[in-house]
Write a structure and sequence with these properties.
Elements: E1 10-13, E2 19-21, E3 28-33, H1 44-53, E4 64-66, E5 72-74, E6 80-82, E7 92-97, H2 108-125, E8 133-135, E9 138-141, E10 143-146, H3 166-180
């Protein structure tokens, strides 16, 4: 019988120069989609996005990237602000997930890896595992949000899309946090 993995599986560390100092406490975990394709049984999908984040010209970054194999890449240390969601960068930790907003389903292994990050960060930074809320450029309820939920102040994005199993991710993150901490 195999043991359940409760910690994220970081298979790649490729740090981005596109960071700055935080000026607000962490109160949000923001979920994104990369708008790129998963490469099965390979870290090349993670390496491709991490490589883009490593280009100064891209002017973007995220703390971690997850893929459909259930692996992660680390791109920005938690203590720094990633450049992922405009007005909310300083208050957030960001997870880019290999996939597209238009896809109708997400691989369970990927969203389980995302749930592991949520559980870990919830414990470390006291971000509740619940839906967060924002109004304008202000966080009105700490928690977990999609990039789309941030509206125009977050960049006006639509990811990770209608097919994303957000309720399942939050339920799994809660379960993992209870087992782990």
């Amino acid at each position: 019988m195999s043991r359940e993995r409760l910690h994220p599986d970081v298979v790649l560390k490729h740090y981005s120069p596109n960071v700055s100092e935080r000026v607000a406490p962490i109160s949000l975990i923001v979920l994104h989609s990369t708008e790129s394709a998963n490469v099965p049984d390979s870290a090349s999908d993670l390496a491709g996005v991490a490589g883009w984040f490593a280009e100064e010209a891209s002017q973007v970054s995220a703390h971690v990237i997850t893929d459909a194999d259930g692996h992660s890449a680390r791109c920005v240390p938690d203590r720094l602000k990633a450049w992922a969601c405009m007005a909310f960068n300083s208050a957030s930790l960001n997870i880019e997930q290999i996939g597209a907003a238009a896809q109708s389903s997400w691989e369970r292994r990927e969203w389980l890896e995302t749930a592991r990050w949520i559980a870990q960060w919830s414990h470390a930074y006291h971000v509740p595992i619940r839906l967060g809320e924002v109004r304008g450029e202000a966080v009105t309820r700490s928690g977990i949000v999609t990039h789309k939920m941030l509206g125009i102040s977050g960049g006006g994005h639509v990811d990770p899309g209608e097919g994303y199993p957000l309720a399942d991710v939050l339920e799994e993150a809660t379960r993992i946090k209870r087992k782990k901490f």
